[in-house]
Amino acid sequence: MKNSLSTALTELAEDVQPVDLHDRVLATSRRLRARRAVAGSLAVVALAAGATYGAVRALPSERALPPAEPVVTIPGTVYFASSELPAYTVYRLAPGGELEEFAKFPSGALGETVALSPDGHRAAWVTVDGAVMVGRTDGSEATKVGTQELQSDCGRPSWSPDGGRVAFVSGGWEDSALMVADADGSPVAEVDQTGGCFPVWSPDGRRLAYVQFPNGSLNSQLLTVQADGTARRVVPVQLRDPAYVRYPVSISNDGAKVVAAVGEPDGCNCPEGITLSFADRLIDGLSGEVSQLTCENALLTPDGGLLLRVAAGDAYTLELRSPDGALLASWQEPKWPHETRLLRYVP
């Protein structure tokens, strides 16, 4: 029996082929990596399909957006505003992604004129009787820095990036002037004696963008000027009547880029005449060329990038994009109970 078993084992050993376990492990590892690569590629395609609706709409000369690794929160602090009566409410999105009600302004402030300081501790606004005020966000410790008779959001004040100065409109429709005052109310300097509406500061605090409405018409002019009143320039915006620039939203340090709200015909064949819809557009500060943005609101960032507020049904997504258009970060907004707009972004 033992001799038979020994003989059988010897014959079996001669038939067995040697196996290189090292080669098998490597082959298996390569197959797994290949499967993961395919799965990863499909995931990237799915993400790209969902993200492209927030990109700047392609112009004839525009190149494809570079790939990026976006994060799910926006760095810095984002402020939103809702002008739902009886109070003007400011919301804050903190760097950690938490959204909170930040401040409420009573009906004594014209809601659309409220401007928040960069540190979020103070605000500037226009009262219903035309006083331009600077105070804390709860309305206390308010100081009057000027007066106006516009009774319109045209006179909306604007804070310098360092929080030390406020630009505002003084006077009435016929004799308004663009002014700059220290945040404590003095001194007050005249920047443009020919008037202006909706002033906004560049991130470095050296330049302002604003609009004028000559003779009260909608044929507005978009202008830029140094904060000391020099280098005043009219931007030759390329729009066809009846489209017009309603107000600037933000301006780059060099004035080469301006985001502005533009009114354009909405295609309605209405019995009362042409109606306009408004959307933020990117304007070349030198040539005046207007580029469309596939978003509700937009703000220029200090480095020349864009913070876009993209509509998706009845919800919004914030997208932070680099100067070359790469998606850096995104955040899904909640469903707001009232209409809101981007108020300020502090990186």
Can you give a write-up of this model?
With 347 residues, the protein is mainly beta. The chain has one domain (77-346): TolB, C-terminal domain (Neuraminidase, 6 Propeller). The chain has two helices and 24 strands. The protein has helices spanning 2-15, 21-51, and strands spanning 77-82, 88-93, 99-105, 115-116, 122-126, 131-136, 143-147, 158-159, 165-170, 177-182, 188-192, 197-201, 207-212, 221-226, 233-235, 244-251, 257-265, 276-284, 290-292, 297-300, 306-312, 315-321, 327-332, 341-346. The strands form six sheets. A four-stranded antiparallel beta sheet has the order 3-2-1-24, with no helix packed on it. It has a four-stranded antiparallel beta sheet with strand order 4-5-6-7, with no helix packed on it. The longest helix is centred in the first third of the chain and has 31 residues, at 21-51. The protein is globular and about 45 Å long. 32% of the residues are buried. Mean pLDDT is 77; it is low at 1-69. The chain crosses the membrane at residues 37-56. This is Lipoprotein LpqB beta-propeller domain-containing protein. Belongs to the TolB family.
